[in-house]
Amino acid sequence: MKEILIITSYFPPETGAASNRIFHLATGLEKQHFKVSVITPLPNYPKGEIFKAYRGKFKQTTTENTITIHRLWLFASNSKNKVLRLIAMISYSLSLIWFFMWHKIPNTVIVQSPPLLVAFTCMLFLKRKTRKLILNVSDLWPIAGLELGAFKMNFTYKLLEKIEYFNYKKADLILGQSNEILTHIKTLFPEKDLFLYRNYPDFEKPEITTKSLNSKKITVVYAGLLGMAQGIFKLCKSLDYAKIDFHIYGAGAEQQNIIDFISENPLLPITYHGEVSREELHLALINYDLTIIPLLNRIYGSVPSKIFEYAKLGLPVLYFGGGEGETLIEKHHLGWLADAGNYKHLNSVLQSIDKQELGLEKRAEIQQIAKAHFDFNTQLLALKEKL
Q1: Residue 336: strand, helix, or coil
Q2: What class does CATH assign to 218-373?
């Protein structure tokens, strides 16, 4: 049985797209008869605090469904202070180096990037002639950070570019979640072995339903991270509610701002449901008419994994983020598009949608598209040939 190690910064019981992506990869490879182990920090995301059940531990190793999971210490922080965020990444990198010194590492290793510094640590300390290093790139850093306003074009940015270049150079195979990511890497390393690995979900889809929380209005739902990049607080302030009810699930930096806005505007049809488990969320989502996927700014290389998850649920999408995600929605007829950052156009599109277009026939059609084009196991079998 071939051994494979996955190194990631996010893993259940943490929630979110990054955690789900690596969990599905690990369990999928295990079902394909790989002996899988995972290295990840003690759970701390998204609040930036070690989960209560793991506090006081330096390291914990468990076996879950035959997958060995090593959880390592880090200085947890989700602070906006860049120094504290850097310390958090360095602390995990130091824990990784310590682990590498005292444990035998398999000859096949998949490394998640970003964070760039964590990936750099793995590429620097694990490169061997007999070892295959696979870099799984889910977002393009530092480019994405520049577009989000987190970085400026200065010495730090240039240093991060050098780290990014080093990581690509040392990788034997690079997995990219979008064609934009692969195009970018190919401009730097034309001969590098690349593989398009989308964030397709792997779950048993619930039965689709036409149940709606309001018989007259269109029920619109957002579920996910309530961070700066998604701009849900601004969305709450900018939506035209004449024809819709808006429901929100998730947690993140803007959470309190959203709660305060709802409290200060009790007549607006906005409901915040908090954070729920993924299974509970799926059962809730199928009761809504339409989901919205927003990005405050178009981010090169980014394709929200929600596109594929909602397609499997049969849930029509209003996409408000531009880029490759917009291309996917249009190509596969998954819903409606609004110009990124243009709230006037967003409201115009919402007003143009007829609730009758959101019924069982549309949902069944979307699920068939997901089965044909976004199948996790088909993609995994193609990846298996590369490992």
Answers
A1: strand
A2: alpha beta
| DSSP secondary structure of 65-125 | TTEEEEEE-------S-HHHHHHHHHHHHHHHHHHHHHSPPPSEEEEEESSHHHHHHHHHH
Q: How are beta strands 108-113 and 67-72 bridged, if at all?
A: unpaired
The amino acid at 337: L
Q: Closest Cα to residue 288, out of 246, 232, 238, 339? A: 246
C-alpha count within 13 angstroms, C-beta hemisphere, residue 156: 12
Condensed to tens digits (0 to 9), the pLDDT of residues 223-268 reads 988 887 789 999 999 999 999 999 999 988 899 999 999 999 999 9
Q: Do domains 3-201+376-384 and 218-373 have the same CATH topology?
A: yes
pLDDT digits (tens, 9 = 90+) for 48-59: 889 988 888 899
Helix (H) or strand (E) segment spanning residue 234: helix 232-238
- Residue 215 exposure: Cα atoms within 13 Å on the Cβ side: 0
Cα separation of 157 and 173, whole Å? 25
Contact residues for 89 (Cβ-Cβ < 8 A; gap 6+): 115, 117, 118
Model pLDDT for residues 129-167, shown as the tens digit of each residue = 899 999 999 999 888 777 766 677 888 888 989 999 999
Q: Domain residue spans in the chain?
A: 3-201+376-384, 218-373
CATH number of the structural domain 3-201+376-384: 3.40.50.2000
Classified as helix, coil or strand, 50 is coil
Helix pair angle (323-331, 306-313), 10° resolution: 20
For 8, the enclosing helix (H) or strand (E) is: none
CA nearest neighbour of 126 among 7, 34, 38, 25: 7
